[in-house]
Amino acid sequence: MKMAMVGLGKMGANMTQRLLEKGHQVVAFDLSAEARAAAATKGADPAATLEELVAKLEPPRVAWVMVPAGPPTTSTIETLKGLLSAGDVVIDGGNSNYKEAAPTAQSLAQKGVGFVDAGTSGGVWGLANGYCLMVGGTRESVAVCEPIFLALAPEGGYAHVGPVGAGHFVKMVHNGIEYGLMQAYAEGFEIMDKADEFSLDLHQIAAIWRYGSVVRSWLLELTERALAPGSGFATIEGYVVDSGEGRWTVQEAIDRGVPAPVITTSLYQRFQSREPDAFSFRLLAALRNQFGGHAVVSEPAPSAGGGPPKATPS
After folding, report:
1. What number of other Cβ atoms are within 10 A of residue 201's Cβ?
2. Residue 302 has what pLDDT?
3. First CA to last CA across the chain, in angstroms?
């Protein structure tokens, strides 16, 4: 079928290519002319504006929005609303908050335009391996878009999980679980890294755990790649961002009275990674010194050269 892809970043560009390889026609739009040109080399029909994009489609039109969550997605969908007609469908495939889905669907319904929220997982590997798709929306709107979902997903990797909002809700929880899994791998490998007496080859261990181990997973495969010689792992700064889904999952757990200590702790660990000189840890060290006389590490004044202070034992 013929459809539109709005947003040609790492995900949108690869999804466009996969759809083209599966025999679909894609009208591609991005604010970047370079991104549009790159999509055209893969066989997409580039559009310089959303108006041009919609004009190149045929009813029922389907426009997949794959731009950053928040204002970029909201403004894009609002513009499409003014251009689309009854029977057309907008798909939000980004990491939008599921609570925004119902108001968006209601707004589009004023013109008879359908809305589908498609939780999309697969990252940069989705082009080759396919994307896991968790889709929310009415049966009618999902049916219009289903050929797209079947092309993007590997066999068994797509499901209509519920009404509007369900797709992004499931994807939110999916990413919360991801936080916990990643944290467990990180902690386990750090414990082994500290076992100096064994001189463990962490890359070797990650490699063998991929076969037959009960902790094998795709994330473990990525761990093996990250620890491989020449991967540049030693140069990576330990600053871990969070894109929102982990926070939303923790808030949902609180609101619904569900204990989620693993996901919650993994989120807090990401916060901690951004504070190399966290106030809380400084206070803990000071308190230990106050009640027990335990040694602390102090920071001398910066050198005249303006370099960072170096910790020295006192």
Report:
1. 13
2. 44
3. 71
